[in-house]
Specification:
Layout: E1 4-22, E2 28-48, E3 53-57, H1 69-81, E4 86-92, H2 103-118, H3 125-133, H4 139-144, E5 147-152, E6 156-160, E7 167-172, H5 179-185, H6 196-204, H7 208-213, E8 216-217, H8 220-226, H9 229-239, E9 244-247, E10 254-258, H10 261-272, E11 277-282
Parallel strand pairs: 1-8, 3-4
Antiparallel strand pairs: 1-2, 2-4, 2-5, 5-6, 7-10, 7-11, 9-10
Helix pairs in contact: 1-2, 2-3
Bound molecules: adenosine-5'-triphosphate.
Adenosine-5'-triphosphate binds at residues 62-63, 67-70, 91, 97-105, 107, 138, 179, 249-250.
Length: 289
């Protein structure tokens, strides 16, 4: 029996998401603060005979071929290091797909960490982040997770301390959105830019109220034009007493931050009848490696 390596692939939320402009390469220049939450996919990787990469997943709508981001990560590592060895990648999906929670990116990052161990590649964090950036903009953040400022197209990572512990309620309306489509619909004039520096300062001094009052995402109003449930969920969360509420990434998942468990439970119960996928988890905040 060949060795099996396991990795947890946590979801992220954006505490702030700003777009500074459009770059010559077609990407947007972003400035975002991301943090990981305790809602994770689980990756299992095992060597097989031959030289093929096989991906299987527990979710219905995730591609199992070379379009899968975990496949892309394994393929890149095999090519870069000239490894002629087949692997089977099993992805147990818990993170909703195309939800603004970076599920696919986190699976790719977990695959890089897992193969670094399986094949004893001895890659440093910087080397893994460099491979990750070639797969997708959010993958570099997911290699280490925790809390960080991401700039450039999202691949340049500056670590931040963990925010104070709290509960996170995640609610995803029963629709998926394409990140590319949301960025295309964004008009750059008159954006209400988040106070990202103020958010960094609040995180650094452990100021929970300061974090909650600065939650801001320039993509939120764009997604609301297409998915009106985002606005409705925000309103319900605020009415039920969430300390801060925001859409994550390009959406449509909305998250609410809550200090006390009893209130988190009340919001979770209140949303369950209203919204398809609802989760109550803790902020992870600290780095994975
Ligand atoms: P982000 O927050 O980084 O924009 P997201 O949470 O909006 O990401 P994902 O769940 O990562 O979106 O999926 C986006 C698309 O990527 C899906 O529609 C799916 O077809 C494709 N995909 C490729 N690999 C995976 C994977 N391992 N898990 C989920 N989706 C994947």
């Amino acid at each position: 029996m060949s060795v099996k390596v396991l990795e947890k692939a946590p979801a992220k939320i954006n505490l702030a998401l700003d777009v500074l402009g459009k770059r010559a390469d077609g990407y947007h220049e972003v400035r975002m603060i991301m943090t990981t939450v305790d809602l994770s996919d689980h990756i299992e990787i095992q060597e097989t005979g031959g030289d093929r990469i096989r991906v299987r997943s527990s979710a219905l709508y995730v591609p199992e071929d070379e379009r899968n981001l975990a496949y892309k990560a394994a393929d890149l590592i095999k090519t870069r290091f000239g490894i002629k060895q087949g692997v089977e990648i099993w992805i147990k999906k818990e993170i909703p797909v195309a939800a603004g929670l970076a599920g696919g990116s986190s699976d790719a990052a977990a695959t890089i960490r897992a193969l670094n161990r399986l094949w004893r590649l001895g890659l440093s964090y910087e080397e893994m982040a460099e491979l990750a950036a070639a797969i997708g903009s959010d993958v570099a953040f997911c290699v280490r997770g925790g809390t960080a400022l991401a700039i450039g197209r999202g691949e340049k990572i500056e670590p931040l301390p963990a925010p104070p512990p709290c509960w996170v309620i995640l609610a995803k309306p029963p629709v998926s959105v394409s990140t590319a489509e949301i960025y295309q619909a964004l008009t750059l004039d008159h954006l209400a830019h988040p106070d990202t520096d103020g958010m960094i300062a609040a995180i650094e001094r452990g100021d929970y109220e300061g974090i909650c009052s600065r939650l801001s995402n320039v993509l939120e109003s764009v997604t609301i034009q297409k998915v009106e449930e985002v606005e409705q969920i925000k309103r319900v969360m605020a009415r039920l007493g969430a300390d801060g509420v925001l859409m994550s990434g390009s959406g449509p998942t909305v998250f609410g931050l809550v200090r006390h468990k009893s209130k988190a439970q009340r919001i979770y119960n209140g949303l369950r009848g209203f919204c398809g996928e609802v989760f109550m988890v803790r902020l992870l905040g600290g780095a994975l490696i």
